[in-house]
Design brief:
- This protein is mostly helical.
- It has 19 helices and no strands.
- The N terminus is likely disordered.
Length: about 425
């Protein structure tokens, strides 16, 4: 018997190699998807695209709620079904087909529909379906990650996804700036059309890669329950589990705190005469900030825990909101120039990158850490659905801005960031062992 050959076939070595493969595929999935998604960033690129088609602030305000809210809302209804599946990857693969088709339609619509009303109708319809299908597969994705990435490496896992993509996104931001500037060979809407093509190719590639993850089967499956039974159980958990309840509230407050972000650049451009090409600069600053903060937050997550990461995110958001509010208050009395106002947003988007990165890493890790293995689908699904309704409600930010003004909207977000900072310290987290 050849012991050398048999040693390579040992279960431990095979399992270790599978774990490394899954980790790499998960990171690559995130890198490609995040690069593609950044090229059509909702707070900057899509907001700029919509502002050239329509002057309705409500349409701009609902972009993030559609993407993030509709991603989260379906997950509670999916949780009962997902917890009965031995392997969640099969559901992810089936839903991925629809997601990829929708991404392709978005690119086609931006490139080939010239009627503004028809373009808006088709874009929003497809964007809504894309968000919903992402949500249908999102809970399965979280379950797969929880089974294939050890708890102590999850902070590193999410940090690598954001960090590596950040390196490439620096070049992507320069490309966006050039494409949206007056020196671009492509005029509207073809400049945005080219971005949408890259968006489709990169995001679809990332989705396809994750389909090759080897997910271990669950042995102890829970039976399927009617939705009203699951809802009753979820309310019981929310009432009895203080950590889970406080974390739900924290995510809701952080979602509210971020609802003014899509209006930062638009406010400076439309009210103070800022240069639209600065969108590419702001995107680059956000990306660079993401990259640097990922290196920092990955280490903090591993050594100090994810609550510390969330605290940094809330603190950065507080400073971000305060700076924009200060600009809105001082712009007219001090006669701040268009160029100065544009430069004023540089630290704002640096802080926005820190906030977004810290929030993404901490929220995903904390969510998995506080969810028991046996009911993870229910815990995560119900939490995401509640957050989704809150995020979707923040689409009213455009209405608040129109009716009460940008200053009132900024005061609301500043107070929400301060409250989220307080709530962060009320959460006691014990890392899961799975």
């Amino acid at each position: 018997m050849n012991t050398e050959i048999s040693s390579y076939d040992s279960p431990d070595l095979i399992a270790a190699e599978t774990a490394r493969k899954n980790f790499r595929l998960g990171v690559l999935n995130g890198v490609l998807y995040i690069i593609g998604d950044t090229l059509m960033d909702p707070t900057l690129v899509i907001a700029a695209f919509l502002s050239q088609i329509s002057s309705n602030d409500l349409l701009i305000g609902i972009i993030i709620p559609i993407r993030d809210g509709l991603w989260a809302i379906p997950q509670f209804w999916m949780s009962g079904y997902i917890q009965t599946l031995s392997r969640k990857i099969n559901l992810f693969r089936r839903v991925s087909i629809v997601r990829i088709i929708c991404l392709g339609f978005i690119a086609l619509e931006i490139n080939f529909i010239s009627n503004p009303v028809l373009l808006l109708a088709c874009f929003f319809a497809t964007y809504i379906i894309t968000a919903l299908t992402s949500g249908l597969s999102g809970l399965a994705w979280m379950e797969i990650v929880s089974k294939t990435v050890p708890s102590e490496r999850r902070g590193e896992f999410f940090a690598l996804r954001f960090g590596i993509s950040g390196v490439f996104n620096i070049g992507g931001s320069l490309f966006v700036r050039w494409l949206l500037s007056q020196q671009s060979p492509l005029v509207f809407p073809h400049n945005f059309g080219l971005l949408s093509i890259f968006y489709f190719i990169l995001c679809a590639s990332g989705i396809i890669l994750f389909c090759f993850v080897d997910e271990p089967p669950d042995q102890d499956l829970l039976p399927s329950h009617p939705i009203h039974i699951l809802f009753k159980r979820a309310l019981t958990i929310l009432r009895e589990d203080a950590i889970y309840r406080n974390f739900n509230l924290l995510l809701a407050v952080m979602a509210t705190a971020g609802m003014a972000t899509p209006f930062f650049a638009i406010y400076v451009q439309q009210s103070l005469g800022g240069d639209p090409a600065m969108v590419g600069v702001y995107l680059g600053l956000t990306i660079a900030s993401n990259l640097v903060s990922n290196l920092f937050f990955g280490r903090i997550s591993r050594r100090k825990g994810n609550r510390r990461v969330m605290a940094f995110a809330a603190l950065s958001g507080t400073a971000m909101s305060a700076l924009v509010l200060l600009l809105a208050v001082l712009a007219q009395p001090l006669h701040i120039s268009a160029q100065a106002a544009s430069y004023w947003l540089i630290p704002v988007f640096l802080l926005s990158g820190v906030r977004g990165t810290g929030y993404s890493i901490a929220s995903n890790c904390i969510m998995l850490d506080i969810s028991p293995t046996s009911e993870r689908s229910l815990y995560v699904g119900f939490l995401n659905t509640i957050s989704g309704f809150v995020i979707f409600a923040t689409g009213l930010s455009g209405v608040i801005k129109d009716m009460l003004g940008i200053k009132v909207l900024l005061v609301i977000t500043l107070l929400a960031h301060l409250l989220s900072l307080y709530l962060t310290f009320k959460i006691k987290i014990k890392r899961s062992t799975v």
